[in-house]
Design a protein that fits this description.
By secondary structure, the protein is mainly alpha-helical. The chain has 7 helices and no strands. The longest helix has 53 residues.
Length: 177
């Protein structure tokens, strides 16, 4: 997305013969900015988790920190599922032909590709942005599966605790002090 945004910013002021601009006028860039920002936020969150594992004197302390922040992790993962799902929806809804993705994949850009081929390749931009959309969908699915896994793990831990209490109660009944 950074590549598409950079290409737009570098070429938006070019004027073709006949006073034609290479981009839609006006061009919506907020969908691209939204997807880029969501990717950057996710990157930093993942770097923080990796940093906890690398810099907290080994795996044991990182695991302890993970136990303490477990519920916060569940909430953050659920939040990322929602955020990525909303991002996917908004990015797809904004594809009206006046945004960077819609324009670079549209017939209007095909018509002027010959005039802009020296500084702009709409086919490549279309491929990059379509790939980014696919990865966004994949990201939402991965976070949803991660959240579902967290839910099942939490249920299993609660079940094990209940079973341990039940076994302790049975043991105390069979062998009173």
């Amino acid at each position: 997305m950074a590549y598409a945004l950079a290409k737009y910013l570098l070429t938006r002021d070019h004027v073709l013969p006949g006073n034609v601009h290479p981009w839609a006028t006006p061009t919506k860039i907020w969908p691209t900015l939204m997807l880029l920002a969501m990717g950057i936020v996710t990157l930093f969150l993942n770097i923080i988790v990796l940093g906890a594992y690398c810099c907290r004197n080994g795996e044991a302390k990182a695991d302890k920190m993970d136990d303490v922040s477990g519920y916060i992790g569940y909430v953050m993962t659920a939040g990322q599922v929602v955020a990525w799902a909303v991002t996917v929806g908004l990015f797809k809804m904004a594809n009206t032909g006046t945004d960077l993705w819609g324009w670079s994949c549209g017939t209007e850009s095909d018509a002027i590709q010959g005039d802009v081929q020296s500084f702009l390749n709409f086919g490549q931009l279309c491929t990059v942005q379509t790939g980014a959309f696919g990865i966004t969908i994949l990201e939402a699915i991965v976070y949803a599966l991660t959240f579902i896994t967290y839910v099942f793990m939490a249920r299993q831990m609660l079940h094990k605790r209940k079973m341990a209490k039940f076994e302790q109660l049975q043991h105390n009944r069979n062998f009173p002090r």
